[in-house]
Amino acid sequence: MNPASLILAAVAAAVVAGLIVWVWRSRREIERLNDRLESASANLQNLQLAFSRFAPDEVVERVIASGIGETGEKKEVTALFADLVGFTALSESVEPTVLVGILNGYFERMSEAISQHRGYVSTFIGDGLLAFFGALAPNPWQGNDAVQAALAMRTAIASYNNELARNGLPALAIGIGLNRGTGVAGLVGSRDLKEFTLVGRTVNVAARVQDLTRQYEADIILTEALGKTLDPRFRLSPLPPTLVKGVAEPLSIYAVEGFDEGTVG
Does 109 have pLDDT greater than 70? Predict the structure, then answer.
């Protein structure tokens, strides 16, 4: 074999060897990617299962599509915390099955009022609930939406009380606290059960403000941090600045009277 043929044979052998290595490496990479894809798919299925145990399908899809998931993301959110007033006395005055029926009807109506104004109910806590506006998607009107939801809840509870009265059942009274601020939004919980929530002072302050509804006998109270972002057509009444747990300075708060539909500016 002449030198040229030897060179060509060597080049060909090198090319074949290179192709074999490339194919081998490619197959290993494909296998690795398939393993990662299968793992990601399994994780997604587990996440959907854990989350969907308490959240509607459309909310599960929105949370996963947002990419927040379990990594968390800092967001500006409006928190709404609602609680029934005098629930302990109510729970002792009616049969358990009747009580559960009352609560289910209450939660159904409150959740509907919140969702109709682009809010998301994060969790039910006994006879209370926690909802967020602007948590799942950016919403520059989140404050207005949250207060409109609170007003809709006021209307819904009045309508529900008429229904309860027709059935000879006691009326319900609700207290709602609202606050706007930043926090870390994400899926929190165990492998088997997760909830999409906001971690931070914003939620704590909303809960403290809700507690003040009993002190000031006002069914809806919001903080100045939220109030200064609202449409001026909301009618707010200032309440005495009040110290609450976790806040160093007295909190400026307002009772919500209503909304003037016919006024502009």
Answer: yes
Residue 254 in contact with residue 239, Cβ under 8 Å?
A: yes
Strands (E), the chain: 73-85, 119-125, 128-133, 173-189, 194-199, 220-223, 234-242, 251-259
For residue 115, what are the β-bridge partners? Answer: none
36 pLDDT higher than 80: no
**Cα–Cα distance for residue pair 83/177, rounded to 1 Å:** 9
Asked whether 205 and 223 are in contact (CB, 8 A), the reply is yes
Helix (H) or strand (E) holding 53: none
Across all residues in the chain, what is the average pLDDT? Answer: 81
How confident is the model over 208-264, as pLDDT tens digits?
999 999 999 999 999 999 999 999 999 999 999 999 988 889 999 999 999 998 755
Residue 117's alpha-carbon distances to 111, 134, 144, 176, 198, in angstroms, are 10, 11, 9, 16, 19
Q: 212 Cβ partners below 8 Å, 6+ apart?
A: 177, 218, 221, 239, 242, 244, 253
Residue 47 pLDDT > 50, yes or no? Answer: no
- Which structure tokens are listed for 40? 């990601």
